[in-house]
Write a structure and sequence with these properties.
The protein is mostly beta strands. It has no helices and 11 strands.
Length: about 120
């Protein structure tokens, strides 16, 4: 599976962005999809995940109520809608695909996109 993330950019605090992650391959629907982020000088952290059938979603406490993860298996794409953005959301955002159950842990994912930069100004 190859993943291509897009949609990052510069936005003011309180604004919104929607990230997209397009996947290649016909097995996209079998993977749990996740979003992680990494701010300068910090470790990569979990943001959100969505199981392969879309039945279960998981969010980091810091983004609950503001971010929404969704997927369109027909388009092989996963999305991250980000609302009410804060300066502390500034990071490179990565999408990932995996088959393991521990969806909040980076090593549960086998495939990673290249990352897209989100910058939130105050």
């Amino acid at each position: 599976v190859q993943l291509q993330a897009s949609g990052g950019g510069l936005v003011q605090a309180g604004g919104s962005l929607r990230l997209s992650c397009a996947a290649s391959g016909r097995t996209f629907s079998t993977y749990t999809m996740g979003w992680f982020r990494q701010a300068p000088g910090k470790e990569r952290e979990f943001v959100a995940a969505l199981t392969r059938n879309g039945g279960n979603t998981y969010y980091a406490d810091s983004v609950k109520g503001r971010f929404t993860i969704s997927r369109d298996n027909a388009k092989n794409t996963v999305y991250l809608q980000m609302n009410s953005l804060k300066p502390e959301d500034t990071a490179v955002y990565y999408c990932a695909a995996g088959l393991r159950a521990s969806v909040q842990v980076p090593n549960a994912y086998s495939y990673w996109g290249q990352g897209t930069l989100v910058t939130v100004s105050s």
